[in-house]
Design brief:
The complex is a heterodimer of chains A (466) and B (178).
Chain A: H1 11-15, H2 31-43, H3 49-75, H4 90-114, H5 124-145, H6 171-204, H7 208-217, H8 225-258, H9 270-296, H10 305-335, H11 339-350, H12 354-366, H13 374-377, H14 380-407, H15 422-445, H16 451-457
Chain B: E1 6-13, H1 16-28, E2 34-37, H2 45-48, H3 56-82, H4 95-121, E3 145-150, H5 158-166, E4 172-177
Antiparallel strand pairs in B: 1-3, 1-4, 2-3
Helix pairs in contact in B: 3-4
């Protein structure tokens, strides 16, 4: 038993070398080839036209988002579809959706490290980058939906001339702390994991300027045994800290709803069901990114069928937890005997937004059941599309929780409808563009797969007792 | 203080097993001030070069305690002492509501302590270091493994140490100018 990073050829790998399950890393690689292959994407491979096209489109979408936000600042949130009774529209739907997507990155980097799942070593780096960019996209929404976004800093406890402090009994304040801690810890985890790889890029780059930039970012890392020891301790402790953190973040997000009295929100199933949903959508996003990346950059040796298959299994499991959550919501609507809860359920099934609820059931529960079939679990094309369906489903789930619950609450006189405007759509699609643009840059500028952790997976990394 | 023009003697190995074995034999031969460099963490190597006390966990513990205390006391002071507000009839010091932020602040401070504590204890960032003067050392971040005996070691001798390192069957031995 040693540190989870030291698992060259873990037991799982050894016992499952049969044709049934693909290995974590294709045989025949050495320290040099692993280093070469991953760093070449950044150092020597020229950017293709496809890259410029993809980045260009995403960059334009980012500009569209900035335009929509600029207009919002000018005019106020009246340009959005939010009204009374639906004061939380797209902004909160998208915030919850993005934060949830981020969760898979932390699950892969922290929880799977603690669980000694060494297959994570080839996908943790870009999954962490995904977390970071998803949290950045998520963070935009609460800041711009407050009405006077230039005063968003009022959320933080700072000594103001008004002498008043934030209201710490409110889950919205908890959210501020949970999300900002999550963003900080995710960034630190990612940056720390990059240090040894930046040193590799520093030592391998031929160009004076890139060597200088990577050299500065590598902080003078030289791979000393003493440094590695402290590094691994810190990495493991950080994983141990990030594990309860990631579970707490979506729990706190769910408190934003569960502590309110709105029918459809006021339920104790929310925290676990939100966390499961977050991981569900996060793995879907990981697959939607990993499948094209491994294909385009020829990384099939490192991101193997095993990774696709394992991610699919995680989706299947979390999808079933989510299905259980939906089931319990429906059951409690009936069993509680509360007429408003019962009506909320009826309204989801038959109300004006019924189409979104039925689509949700199809996207999140019925279609993903095909993942029971091994052939589909290992087919990149099928997984790509199923993941897309799940991402849509998880977005619909948040739409239903936010909009459909709010639009018909206790008093029929205060019922209403919510119609997103073009500005809502531009902001939402714009954040997708921003997220992907950041991923495009990340792929070209930093090693998308953790090189040093891949080296530890090679059989040569094992120290043989004499 | 005059700086020793020679920082140490460095040997290069091909495999992690070779490095661990060499480190063990070097410390058994009586060399105290040695270090090893590898492109990935190798279990047990730090112990072989005489590293036994890792302070990172203590730093993280202290950071976490400070964070938790800061989080709780901040809320207590702001909500119950400095400006108590009656919110829904709840007592000013409503501790269950303060748990979430206390938890988040614990994690935040502990996490920051882990990363910055590790860097500080490692003496990083350090842009210049004598080991980088050895051209072959660029491979230490790729696929080679290095062992160094520092010239500050009492037993260090330009000829003897080189001879000793060569007896470990390294790929190459070079002197490290400081």
């Amino acid at each position: 038993m040693g540190h989870p990073l030291h698992q060259p050829m873990d037991e799982q790998y050894k016992t499952t070398m049969d044709a049934d399950r693909a290995p974590v890393i294709e045989p025949g690689h050495t320290f040099a080839t692993v280093t070469e292959k991953i760093s070449a994407i950044v150092l020597t491979r020229p950017a293709s036209n496809g890259w410029f096209l993809g980045f260009g489109i995403c960059f334009m979408l980012t500009m569209m988002m900035l335009f929509a936000i600029g207009y919002l600042f000018l005019k106020g949130i009246g340009i959005w579809g939010v009204t009374i009774p639906i004061g939380w529209g797209f902004a909160i739907v998208n915030f919850v959706w993005w934060i949830g997507i981020g969760h898979a990155g932390t699950l892969i980097s922290a929880i799977l490290l603690l669980l000694r799942q060494s297959w994570r070593n080839s996908i943790n780096r870009f999954a962490e980058a995904m977390t970071l960019f998803a949290v950045a996209a998520a963070g935009i929404f609460p800041a711009i939906h407050v009405g006077r976004p230039w005063l968003a800093y009022w959320l933080f406890p700072y000594p103001s001339t008004m002498n008043v402090w934030p209201q710490f009994r409110s889950p919205l304040m908890w959210d501020v702390f949970a999300v900002s801690t999550y963003a900080t810890i995710s960034a630190l985890f990612w940056a720390m994991g990059l240090i040894p790889d930046l040193a590799t890029l520093r030592d391998r780059s031929e160009n004076r300027w890139t060597r200088m930039i990577y050299g500065i970012l590598a902080l003078g890392w030289r791979g000393s045994a003493r440094h590695w020891h402290r590094y691994e301790t810190a990495y493991l402790l950080l994983a141990g800290l990030a594990t309860p953190l990631v579970l707490s973040v979506h729990t706190v997000v769910s408190f934003d709803f569960a502590i309110g009295i709105v029918p459809g929100w006021h339920t104790t199933i929310f925290p676990p069901y939100f966390v499961a949903g977050a991981i569900y959508s996060g793995f879907a996003m990981v697959l939607m990114l990993a499948i094209p990346i491994r294909k385009i950059y020829g990384l099939e040796d490192f991101i193997t069928e095993r990774h696709l298959q394992n991610s699919a299994k995680v989706m299947l499991a979390t999808g079933l937890i989510v299905a259980y959550g939906y089931g319990i919501e429906a059951f409690m609507g009936w069993y509680s005997g509360d007429r408003y809860d019962a009506f909320t359920m009826w309204n989801r099934l038959h109300g004006p937004y019924a189409i979104s609820y039925w689509s949700l059931l199809i996207c999140n529960i019925f279609i993903p059941q095909v993942l029971w079939i091994r052939k589909l679990r290992t087919s990149p094309v099928a997984l790509f599309f199923i993941s897309g369906v799940i991402l849509i489903g998880m977005w619909l789930e948040r739409f239903i929780i936010v909009v459909v619950s709010l639009h018909r609450d206790f008093l029929t006189s205060s019922w209403g409808m919510y119609y997103p405007t073009r500005w809502d759509w531009m902001t939402y699609i714009g954040t997708i563009g921003m997220f992907l643009a950041a991923m495009f840059l990340f792929l070209r500028l930093l090693p998308a797969i953790s090189i040093f952790e891949m080296r530890t997976l090679l059989p040569q990394a094992e120290v043989k007792a004499e | 203080m005059k700086r020793d023009p020679i920082y140490g003697m460095m040997a290069e190995f091909d495999t992690p097993t070779g490095l661990v074995e060499a480190a063990r034999r070097t410390s058994h031969a009586g060399y105290k001030k040695i270090d090893a460099y590898s492109p990935f963490p190798i279990e047990g190597l730090a112990e072989e070069v005489g590293f036994h006390h890792d302070e990172v966990p203590l730093v993280v513990l202290i950071g976490g305690l400070i964070g938790g205390l800061t989080g709780y006391l901040m809320q207590y002071w702001m909500a119950a002492v400095d400006y108590p507000l009656n919110i829904g009839g709840k007592p000013p010091h409503s501790w269950p509501a303060f748990i979430v932020i206390t938890f988040e602040m614990t994690i935040l401070f502990a996490g920051i302590s882990a990363v910055f504590g590790m860097l500080a204890l490692n003496g990083l960032p350090m842009p210049y270091h004598p080991v980088f003067n050895v051209p072959r050392f660029a491979l230490a971040s790729k696929d080679r493994f290095f062992l160094i005996v520092f010239s500050s070691d009492k037993k260090y001798d330009r000829v003897e140490t080189r001879k000793f390192l060569e007896s470990l069957e390294p790929r190459s031995v070079s002197e490290v100018p400081s």
